[in-house]
Amino acid sequence: MAVESFFEGLSIALSGEALLWLTAGLLLGIVLGALPGIGSPVGMAIVLPLTLPLDSTMALILLIAIYSGAMFGGSIAAILINAPGTESAAATTLDGYPMSKNGLAKNALAIATTASALNGFLGALALILISPVLIEVVLAFGSPEYFLLAILGISLITIVTQGSIVKGLVAGALGFMISTIGTGILSPRPRYTFGQFGLYDGIDFVAALIGMFAFAEMMKLAAMKQIASTDIELGGSIREGISTVFRYPKTTLKSGLIGMGIGMIPGSGATTSTFVAYAEEVRSVGKDGRFGEGDPRGVIAPEGANNPTVSGSLIPTLSFGIPGSGSTAVLLGGILMHGLQPGPALFSDELNITYALFISLFLGNFLIIAVGLTVIPYASRLTEIDTNIIIPVVVVLSFAGAYTLNQNWFDVTAVVALGVLGFYMVRYNYSIIAFVLGIVLGPIAEENFFRSLQISGGEYSIFIDPINRPLSFLLVLAILFILVGPFLKPYLERKIDRA
Question: What is the mean pLDDT of residues 469-491?
Fold first, then answer.
């Protein structure tokens, strides 16, 4: 079945329609990534409701292409004006911008393009090769395991939250609470609707994503001063930049492995993987490097990690419905909006769709190479678009997209309300990712919890049965370890210091 599904997915990915949406998504993603403050979550959130008329596979190919393109596009602003277009490109500024100031802007952009696309090939290929193992793992999960996996995802808030763990848990709980608005999943009773029929279907998940990412980000941009454009001339050599990547094969390969490995961890994201790859390169090179002064390895490492992170992050998103970042949260919204369910279905009856996505991700890197190297002489123009133009366009598209979801003005209101909430959450250091994990995983946890109790006849032992359901028991242990670990760590460190 897997072989047949692979060739069916290959025919879908190579179809004219799929290649058209793949190209459009990559071009849009590169532009969005190059605009400081926009990036893939905002772009994907805006485009998401506009994909409703599309076939589900074409819509997901478009979204993944935007994600992949933006990961590369973020390096353009990072290298030219020291203002990363995406958070994941922040590590690229450390040596990319000094290279530009040293007259090697074309070298740095060519390095970023080549390293990103080359490891993108390897990451997508690895994803295709390990998919048979993923199929076996995913099909081993039942309702109890999915409930515990959702709780595990919410528990990861204690790890992914930077700063106060309490604030992270509050944000996650708030997201969970918002997911309960509307008619109960397994009961006809309305909850927290306050007599408003428009809330009986709950707050649309896609509208929530548009508000938290697109609208909130535009509020943040509006509060900032205009980003200055670069006065750096595009000097250097594209050919020399390409050859530089192949002079450091160990750095390139190691960064790709780091990117894919960290991408598989729910909640980690590309920002973590790029900084880890950069830090590892600094550690391994030692005193022989000139990091922070324009060392090309300081560009290869983060850019070599970003695209494999996309491949890695698809594993928990497609397999278990746990997003690893804001971008994969929006992608998950697209999966659900188009009537697909992460998990066993995507790795059995709809395996051809999954393979089509993996193959499209592989093919997209050809376009990243072609487009990336072509636009280098004109790259500085992408960073000069006025935010006074960007903000109203994004806001209007956000409202239009939210309304088209269900022709419901409550969705538009949700965009504004959650956008304002997201703006102040960021200002006061409450985790947006924790909130998104709560609102995404809440319905998954609730539905599988009640379904598990129906299977067991109301016996809670179904979740902690080490003999009949060892996977559930292991997940319970993992949840306890994750929840208790951050609180035990300071105590253990004090004990070690005293010893």
Answer: 81
